[in-house]
Amino acid sequence: MQAKEVEKIYRLANLSLEGKDVEDLSNKFNIVIDFIENIFDVDTENVEMTESIDAHKAIFRKDEPKESSSRDEALKNAPDKEFGYFRLDWNL
């Protein structure tokens, strides 16, 4: 991962890079990405599955309708808005 990609990820997450070493972050991201790529190379052909999603019991709450947030309330912390909607910078 290049420094430019790290900067884009931080912008998208609304995080500040101020005081951070972008090259160091880039190296750390690359270590994680390499580790994940290695996971896909592990041979699990004869490994018995140890956990199944079927074994989990999901607890559902009753769906109860309630008052929605007003548009002003929903947009009050938006960093950029236009015509009553969130505005996104597609060039990030």
Task: Provide a quick synopsis of the model.
This protein is 37% helix and 4% strand.
Shape: flat
Q: Give a count of the beta strands, DSSP E runs of length 2 or more.
A: 2
Tally of separate helices = 3
Radius of gyration: 21 Å
The fraction of residues assigned to DSSP E strands is under 5%
- Biggest sheet: strands side by side, in what order? 1-2
Structural class, by secondary structure, is mainly alpha
User: How do the helices and strands follow one another from N- to C-terminus?
Assistant: HHHEE
C-alpha termini separation: 16 Å
Q: pLDDT average, as an integer?
A: 88
The percent of residues in helical segments reads: 25-40%
Contiguous uncertain segments of 5+ residues: none
Largest sheet, described in full? 2 strands, antiparallel
Protein name: Aspartyl/glutamyl-tRNA(Asn/Gln) amidotransferase subunit C
Enzyme class: ligase
Catalytic activity: L-aspartyl-tRNA(Asn) + L-glutamine + ATP + H2O = L-asparaginyl-tRNA(Asn) + L-glutamate + ADP + phosphate + 2 H(+); L-glutamyl-tRNA(Gln) + L-glutamine + ATP + H2O = L-glutaminyl-tRNA(Gln) + L-glutamate + ADP + phosphate + H(+)
Subunit structure: Heterotrimer of A, B and C subunits.
